UniProtKB/TrEMBL annotation:
It comes from Streptomyces hazeniae. The chain crosses the membrane at residues 397-417. Pfam families: Prenyltrans. Residues 371-395 are annotated as: Disordered. Residues 60-174 form the Prenyltransferase alpha-alpha toroid domain. SUPFAM superfamilies: Terpenoid cyclases/Protein prenyltransferases. This is Terpene cyclase/mutase family protein. It comes from the Bacteria. Keywords: Membrane, Repeat, Signal, Transmembrane, Transmembrane helix.
Amino acid sequence: MFLRRSAAALAATTVLCAVAAPLAAASPVTAPGGAPAAAGKGDAGLYGEADPTYDGVWRQSLALLAQDTAGVTPAKKSVGWLAAQQCDDGSFASYRADPGAPCGKKTVADTNATAAAVQALSVLGGHGDAVGKAVDWLKSVQNDDGGWGYNPGSPSDANSVSVVIGALEQTGQDPERTTAGKKDATPYDALLGLRLGCDAKAGERGAFAYQPDKKGALAPNTDATAAATLAGEGDGFVVEPLEKDENEAVEALACGGGGGDRKDPEDAAEAGAAYLTGVLKKNDWHLMSALPGSEDQPDYGNTADAVLALAAGGHGDAARSTVGWLEKHHGDWDKHASSPAALGQLVLAAHATGTDPRDFGGTDLVKRLNATGPEPAAVEEPKSRAEEEKEDEGDTVTLVSTVAAFLVAGIGIGILLSGRGKRKQ
């Protein structure tokens, strides 16, 4: 929010200076927690009570990122728990029963956990070496097509590629310069290879597939589309909040005239957002589960992911309508209501749309998230959006006044020097 508003202040400064002196900036669906289990030796800082075998690093990373956006400084041991999951080669496994013991041959590293941890540790700061090793590991297991699969060596999938792109962007890496294979393929090459283009059915164009099927055919997948759309916008899990009235119209994939199948990440993201918006509208602003046997049930996590993707593209109306549905129905997310990952996703969706996570449909998401782990080191007193806007307006006025004062001073000096010159004559 501050960055976008600063642009207005800078614009005003540029105009004044010009007058005075012409010389003169993925995701996969939340993993199931499983049945409660006894805490392992190094689980004192872990969020949530469910078995962390499959989602420990993932949920911890989302929880820490969400807390950071809400002005919460997590407990040192919570951050330490995440950092301790890293293996010597730089990778992260979903969970290690004993973080004090070295990773072994049976430790299954995965790109999603590693990329999520990179985003969290990078945002929190103080773990530069760990982040650097993790990024190096991700680059070392990049597939020849430029992408990543869930585990090293597995075929690239849209969700894994997208979450790694988010990690690269978060750490200042350029995905378009992160290449692999004889053709120097980039992550976007792999991602765009999973997009449904103009040869697809009209209602499926712009969507992304998770992976090709056995025959190489692509089928639209809303989860993969949300992840890929976010990555195409160059964002990770933390999206800069929408301005109050910000709303960029979605542009569907334009076929005909030779321009519909351009392989540009931003164009693909726009088309992906258009596809998502169409599906969301049909379902009263939420997405449905794609899991066999659950097709008639809402997919809350994927809906939250769609909010991030739409907000990243500036599609305010669609993002706000979708987060509005979550505000009304998030209480129905019974099975994951106390899951740190689920709560983290909701906080991140609220943040992206400028919605108050402390009054999200009457629920204080931040308080509930904090309660799933160790007591935070500090909690900032939140400011209302009106207070933030007033402060930003005050900063702009102060900046403009300061520049104007310098200009007046400059004019005065000019007059003084001119007078001195005349007297010398």
